[in-house]
Amino acid sequence: MRLAGNDVLKFGLSTLRTTRAHRMLGDSWRGLGAVLMMHRVVEPAAKPGDFAPNRILEITPAFLDEVITRVQALGYDIVTPDEMVRRLRAGGPGPFAVFTFDDGYKDNFELALPIFEKHNVPFTVYVASDLPDGTADLWWLTLEASIRALDHLEMEIDGETIIDAARTDREKRGAWESVYWRLRDVSEDDARRAVSLLAEHAGIDGLALSRELSMSWDQVRALDAHPLCTVGAHTAAHYALAKLPLDRAREDMLAGTARLEDELGKRPTHFAYPYGDEGSAGAREFDLASEQRFASAVTTRKGLLFDEHGNHLRALPRLSLNGDFQDVDLVEVLLGGAPFALWNRFRRVNVA
């Protein structure tokens, strides 16, 4: 069902691009700017039909280069989070764009950094401190690796036993869909425990996988010292904060921030909520970000930035550069704002 929704979204964006119907709204929904969200930069890209459910989190170096070029050609200033905050508080000028990466993968350092150096534009990496510490549970990647290694899947989630064939790539995609969203709906601890049991059965070492993909502290420090990069906080353990008790959510935020401060010698002033959707970050989490005095905090709620966001700096939406939508023309459609106007029912600000 959610796959179908993704296909509908892709069709809708392609239709807007072809018909140019998105231009009927003019610039009224373009707003002041956009925060572009990425996770990994990977070469080569997964092939169509491959079992690669996490490729939505992966873009190629060539696509990243194209997006930066197109954004600048459209007249956007590419700015730091500090400058974004200043412009939102002042009501402009626009348009501007902020390029952001979540989690702390080593390809951000090895593949993304040279592209931003080529264009001489800034970017931000929100680091969950468990990644460079080598203790991160990247369960969504462990789940993919486990299903890839198995010819059938059997998992117990919230008291329900799910059994699926997983011999072919098509069957593996079906098995993923059977369990992924169920895992997102249960508690963080239960989800991670279920994936850990599956990984053990599949012979997958999730911790080794995490360490292979994560930046080291030396790389994080090098990024932080780079004039083009801002390092922001992203908790310690990458939990969906809204699913945790208040004290535990606060502690995970504080722990990640303190760990970065220990390693970098300064406290990060910008924050990204793990997962960042409405079910993972809401009013309580926005209050926590304010309580911890972050200058800004970004979600994964879909949208562009308007001057009204100057009053909601800890609940900022983003535009995702989705690995399934690596078409720079579609990015231009999204920057026009029409898809987000429809998605948000013509609300400029969605912080409920």
Outline the secondary-structure elements:
Layout: H1 2-19, E1 33-38, E2 40-41, E3 58-59, H2 61-73, E4 77-78, H3 81-90, E5 96-103, H4 106-119, E6 123-127, H5 130-133, H6 139-149, E7 152-157, E8 160-165, H7 169-185, H8 188-202, H9 206-213, H10 217-225, E9 229-233, H11 246-264, E10 270-272, H12 283-291, E11 296-302, E12 316-320, H13 328-336, H14 338-343
Parallel strand pairs: 1-5, 1-12, 2-3, 4-5, 5-6, 6-9, 10-11, 11-12
Antiparallel strand pairs: 7-8
Mass-distribution shape: globular
Structural class call reads alpha/beta
**Assembly state of the chains shown:** single chain
Backbone CA Rg: 20 Å
Fold and architecture overview:
Strand 10, helix 12 and strand 11 (296-302) form a beta-alpha-beta unit. It contains 14 helices and twelve strands. Mean pLDDT is 93; it is low at 1-9. With 352 residues, the protein is of the alpha/beta class. The chain has two domains: 31-136 and 214-343, TIM Barrel (Alpha-Beta Barrel); 139-208, no CATH class. The longest helix is centred in the C-terminal third of the chain and has 19 residues, at 246-264. The strands form three sheets. Strands 1, 4, 5, 6, 9, 10, 11 and 12 form an eight-stranded parallel sheet that branches. It has a two-stranded parallel sheet with strand order 2-3.
